[in-house]
DNA sequence: GGACCGGAGACAAACGTTTGCCGATGGTTG
DNA sequence: CAACCATCGGCAAACGTTTGTCTCCGGTCC
C-alpha cells in the first residue's frame, strides 16, 4: 500500500506547476493543448486519481448524497434504494444509506451528522413532524418522497388515485360495504386516501368503513383483521402490503376464506405480494422510479448551472389484481 | 444557510490559538483544564462541529465504511445491511451502501471509486474471482462475508452445517432419495454444502442427487423444479430461499402437492419464507449478526491501537421447520 | 516603435483540521 | 542560585485540491 500519486507528482513529472496540472485535467482549453496532453499522459502513467477529500475541502462539495429511510429492512424501500442508487451512480455520486430506526431522534441525529458530509439528501418517508422537516429543509438541500414540504421539490406517489381504482374494482365485483384499514395519522398518503375514498364511495354507491389507525407492520394485521371482521364488510383495503400480509395471516387463522368470504387489497406491491397465497391484489407503486426521480430532482438542485425553482413530480400507480379479491359473497339481508 | 463555524471561530471566541482550540477539544489533559473549559464553552455556544472533510484531509481517514452487495433488492442482504449499519453507527462511522449490480466490472469500478473515499469495506458475496479479490484485499482494508480470502479476516455462515441438519430432518421423515438444487459453481457455500451432503448422505443412508447449477433467482426455480421431478426424489434442498420460492411456484403449477408429494427446504430464511403457503422450511442464517460481526472485524482492523492479526468468525445456523416438509410419500417399489 | 491585447503558465491563498516543535513560564531540586 | 523539568500555549507545516491574480511573452494594430 504505497502512497497514491497526487497532483504534485503529476506536475513534477510533466514539468509544470501544480495549478497548471490541475487546469490541464479539469479546465479544457485553459492551457495549451500540447501541455495538457503532456500532463494527461503523466497522470495516466502515474495512475493519478484526484483525491475526493482534497476536492471536497477546496470546493465545499463532497459529491455524496444520503438516502434516509426509517427502516432498511422494510421492503417498501427496496425500490427506492435501487432507484436513487442507480441515478446517483450515473452521475458519479456516492450513495450513503442511513437507517433512521423509525425514530425522530435517530433521524435528526443522522441529519446533523450528515449535513457537513453530504451535498444533499433524499428523505423517504421521514418521521419528522412538519415544522422540524421544514426547518431542516432550510439547512441543506433535500428532496422528499411522499411528504410535501413548502418550497421544496418532492416526489409523490399517487396511491390515492390507485385507491380509488381499487375501490372501483371491488365495486365491480359486487362489494357494497368495504373497510379501509388506515395507516398512521401523520401519514400524508393516508390523509389523501381517506379523502379520495370518501368521494369515490359516494360516486360508486359503496359504503366505506374507516378503521385504524394501524401501524403498518405485519404484526398489527391481526388487530386490523379482527376490526374488519367486526365491521360487517366483504372487502378491506389495507394501508400497505405489510398490513395486508398480517390481515391475511389472521383471516386464515380464523378460518375466513379469502377471497370467498373476504377480499383483501394491499398497497405498494412490495416484494412478497406475489408470494402469499392467495396472491395479494394490490396497488402497485413505481418505487424504483420514485427513487430515481427524487435523486434526479436533488441532483438538478445541486447543479449550480441549473435554473432552480421547486418541482413536484407525481407518479401514477396501477392496480395489480391477484387472487385475494373476488366477487362479493351473497349477504343475508336482515 | 450561513457558513458553519470553524475551529478558527472557536479559537477567536475563546482567545486562544487554533492549535490550542483543537487540542482542547480532542486531547484531554493536553491543555489546562480552565482553558479547555473556556474553549468547550465557546464551541458549544457557536454550535461548532468539526468538519469531517478537514479531518479527513489531515488524518487520511474519512470515518466512512462501504458495504458492497451484488444486489440491494435481494432480501438476503437486508439482514447484513442492517447489521453493518447498526455496528458502524455505534462507532460514529458513515455507512456507504453500494450495489455492484451483479457484475464484476461494476464491482471493480465501485472499489476503485471508493478506495480513496472510505477507510475500508465489507464485501458481502463478492462476485470477484479469487485472484482479483486477493489483489484488492491488499489495496485497502476489507472483510468478506461467506468468502474466505487468504490472510484476511472474514465471516462465514455455516450453512453447510445447516444443510446436514436439514438432510437429517428429511431422513427422519422417511425420505430416502433427496435432490440438492445447487447454486453457482463459483459459490464457496455451494462447494462446502456439496461436500457436507456427500458425507452426511452416507452416514444417514440417504441418496442425494446433485442438480444444477441454478442461478439463485425465483425465475430459475421452474427449471430446478422440473429437474427435481425428473430425478425421482421425494424432497429437495434448494440452494437458497429465492430458488425454493420458484420451485414452489412451479410445483404448484404442475399440481404437485407440497409437502404431500414433495418436501422442499430453502436456505437463509429471508423475508418472505413465512409468507408462502405452505410456509418454507429453511436453514435460518443469522444474517444480521453476520453483518454486525463483519463490521466489527473491520473496525478492529481500522483501529490503529488494535493488535491486528486475521480472524475468521463462523456463525452457526439452525433449521426452521414450517409446512413445506413432511413425511415421505409411500413409494411404489418397482 | 509604442501601446495594447490575449494566451499560457506560475504563484499563492484558501478550504479546516491535526500535530511536531519551539518558547515561555513557573516550580522544584541540588 | 543555577540547572533542570513539567506544563501549557502558539507558530507553522502538512494533507490535496481549486482558483484569483500576476507575469511574461509574442503578436497586432495604429
From TrEMBL, chains A, B:
Pfam families (UniProt xref): LacI, Peripla_BP_3
Keywords, in A-Z order: DNA-binding, Transcription, Transcription regulation
PROSITE patterns assigned to the protein according to its UniProt record, in alphabetical order: HTH_LACI_2
GO molecular function: DNA-binding transcription factor activity; transcription cis-regulatory region binding
The organism's place on the tree of life at top rank: Bacteria
Domain HTH lacI-type: from-to ranges: 5-59
Gene3D superfamilies: 3.40.50.2300, lambda repressor-like DNA-binding domains
Name of this protein: LacI family transcriptional regulator
Organism: Cellulomonas terrae
Amino acid at each position: 500500500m504505497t502512497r497514491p500519486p497526487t497532483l504534485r507528482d503529476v506536475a513534477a513529472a510533466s514539468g509544470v506547476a501544480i495549478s497548471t496540472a490541475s487546469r490541464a485535467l479539469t479546465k479544457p482549453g485553459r492551457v495549451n493543448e500540447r501541455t495538457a496532453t503532456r500532463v494527461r499522459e503523466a497522470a495516466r502513467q502515474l495512475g493519478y486519481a484526484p483525491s475526493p477529500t482534497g476536492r471536497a475541502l477546496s470546493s465545499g462539495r463532497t459529491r455524496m448524497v444520503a438516502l434516509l429511510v426509517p427502516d432498511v429492512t422494510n421492503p417498501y424501500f427496496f425500490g427506492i434504494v435501487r432507484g436513487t442508487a442507480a441515478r446517483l451512480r450515473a452521475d458519479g455520486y456516492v450513495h450513503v444509506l442511513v437507517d433512521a430506526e423509525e425514530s425522530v431522534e435517530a433521524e435528526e441525529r443522522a441529519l446533523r451528522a450528515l449535513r457537513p458530509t453530504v451535498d444533499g439528501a433524499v428523505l423517504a418517508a421521514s418521521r419528522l413532524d412538519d415544522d422540524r422537516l421544514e426547518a431542516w429543509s432550510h439547512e441543506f438541500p433535500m428532496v422528499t418522497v411522499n411528504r410535501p414540504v413548502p418550497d421544496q421539490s418532492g416526489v409523490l406517489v399517487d396511491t390515492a388515485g390507485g385507491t380509488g381504482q381499487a375501490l372501483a374494482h371491488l365495486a365491480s365485483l359486487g362489494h357494497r360495504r368495504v373497510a379501509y384499514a388506515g395507516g398512521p395519522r401523520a401519514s400524508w398518503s393516508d390523509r389523501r386516501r381517506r379523502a379520495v375514498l370518501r368521494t369515490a364511495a359516494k360516486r360508486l354507491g359503496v359504503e366505506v368503513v374507516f378503521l385504524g389507525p394501524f401501524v403498518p407492520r405485519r404484526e398489527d394485521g391481526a388487530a386490523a383483521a379482527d376490526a374488519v371482521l367486526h365491521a360487517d364488510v366483504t372487502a378491506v383495503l389495507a394501508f400497505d402490503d405489510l398490513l395486508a400480509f398480517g390481515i391475511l395471516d389472521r383471516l386464515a387463522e380464523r378460518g375466513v376464506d379469502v377471497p370467498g368470504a373476504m377480499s383483501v387489497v394491499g398497497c405498494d406491491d412490495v416484494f412478497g405480494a406475489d408470494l402469499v397465497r392467495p396472491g395479494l391484489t394490490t396497488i402497485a407503486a413505481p418505487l424504483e422510479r420514485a427513487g430515481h426521480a427524487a435523486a434526479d430532482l436533488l441532483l438538478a438542485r445541486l447543479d449550480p448551472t441549473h435554473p432552480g425553482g421547486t418541482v413536484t413530480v407525481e407518479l401514477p400507480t396501477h392496480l395489480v389484481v391477484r387472487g385475494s379479491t373476488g366477487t362479493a359473497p351473497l349477504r343475508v339481508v336482515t
